Protein 1
Amino acid sequence: MDPLPNPAPLASKLRNTLVRYHSIGDGEWRVAKKTKDATVWRKPSEEFSGYLYKAQGVVEDVTNRIVDHIRPGPYRLDWDSLMTSMDILETFEENCCVMRYTTAGQLWNIIAPREFVDFSYTTSYEDGLLSCGISLDYGEVRPNFVRGFNHPCGWFCVPLKDSPGHSLLTGYIQTELRGMLPQSAVDTAMSSTLANFYSDLKKALKA
């Protein structure tokens, strides 16, 4: 088990990585799923043998409120159907923490419940916000869970210039679920989970 990292350099490196993902040209992405709420693309990850996913959709609300529903805090558990528990293990400053959370089984439990310990950081980006995270090897793994690992991932949320009450939400996710899983099952689950994330978030914001 590693000790907790120094948050400042990790936060800076994480932000730079996400900004780099955000500048990847359209030609490198392949569409994985399209719904009325979001489009999901993917490309091979540079971090592990799976994919880096990009999800994007317009959400009707202001940037701060959307990010408050996504980042670690009281809202997330209320609406995110995949997340089953969340504990803040350590808070470094207002926008920086380490959290442990668990996810429900997926695909008729082919994918068993997972546990993650993530460093989370929220910062300003252009006229909006970036909330990003990366998994840490920290804390004991609880029984009945497989410990998954999130490579650098995050959500950019910026107001639409011609419609300030709407925001463009763009996510980059690369999750290594670990355990003995067929890659095709993981890929199917990831695309659907990201598309559902947008529809669930929109319902929560309207509630």
Note: The domain at 7-22+31-205 is CATH 3.30.530.20 (Alpha-D-Glucose-1,6-Bisphosphate; Chain A, domain 4).
Protein 2
Amino acid sequence: MKFLLVFDFDHTIIDENSDTWIVKCAPENKLPNGLRNSYRPGHWTEYMGRVFVYLGDNGVKEDEMKRTMTTIPFTAGMVDLLGFIGGNKELFDCIIVSDSNTVFIDWILKAADFHKVFDEVFTNPAAFSSTGYLTVQNFHAHHCAKCPKNLCKRKVLKEFLDKQLERGVSYTQIVYIGDGGNDLCPVMFLKKDDIAMPRQGYTLEKKISQLAQDLSPVECSVLVWSSATEIMSYLKVLIKE
């Protein structure tokens, strides 16, 4: 009996968006209008690539970025929740599927000593170039019309489950914890025994309730949370059943 916990990262594990938080490193804590207005919907990763070039051009170094990123607060109750999951790893497999990047997530999890809680992190690959600039790439290519160009979370989840099945691992229940519009695609993939946990007041919750109003509700159960202690309460009930 094993459960799979799937977490988004920004506004779910941490209480901010890691990609916009890095702007604190920019001169006067802001980006020039031309750069800010260069974002095209669905092409966020390419936009962030330009942001990182701007930071590099302005002499922002890796250590300053790291210091800034590790000040991001965790969401209410999240530290306790991750501690609880870490103490029950025989029952929970735990993955992150995020539109952030490997460098940011790695820094934040390691600084708080939570990297061992997660079995795998699926996010956009990032690295520092020989000139000290942070570079980021799209996670993969996909054919999903609903998702941003660089990442379809449903595809990631499906491929992970297929790979686990090949290893002989199947899950009693999948618990999907997220907040954003790009979390809807994987939630639509969940089955009736699974559960989606959208964060209260965020886009995912609004999209799920819109589907219910349109009489095409998601197949899985839905439990809204505002503090991660509510997620922990649910998981405690789950492992007692």
Note: The chain has a mean pLDDT of 95.
Protein 3
Amino acid sequence: MAIFSVYVVNKAGGLIYQLDHYAPRADSEKTFSYPLDLVLRLHDERVVVAFGQRDGIRVGHAVLAINGAEVNGRFTADGKDVLEFLSNPANYPVSIRFGRHRLSSNEKLMLASMFHSLFAIGSQLSPEVGSSGIEMLETDTFKLHCFQTLTGIKFMVLADPRQAGIDSLLRKIYEIYSDFALKNPFYSLEMPIRCELFDQNLKLALEVAEKAGPFGPGS
């Protein structure tokens, strides 16, 4: 069981804090000879697998590294176009690492804003007056849990579907936010949270939640 990440979104839908706590590794690195037996294409400025699956490499996986050098979007570390590089027989044999692409800061900002809108839509669609909005989204690989305060701040936790004690963890994160962000004289409301004590106590709370599940009284 694991807690993957934490997001804090202000009442306007802006992402003011994000922490990647645990990212499951699903990368696959293989050495290929020419011609490449996978079909690659450009998607959202990334080179991804469009057709062909083998040895843990799946459709949708992105090219993360070539010959041990990290790939940035569609370009290698030394600025070469990935598709052009892989179309040249002289560059083979070549070692390629595939995996799920890492979200950029801009993508995280956009997704937080999208969830803020979905939360509002969920609240408006509810047949009951005063609905709190979306509190949990479930997939086969993770659950997204959301807690909104009375002032409109949203705390979101992405965790393994089997992880227990998330409701208690969300309340604990709210306490940490109140103690170490709101009481910080240098912190401005609705602005990004950059408080070392907030970071430290949040990470400790995530570790406790993973090991022990729910928080007890006085924790």
Note: The helical segments are 82-86, 105-125, 166-182, 196-212.
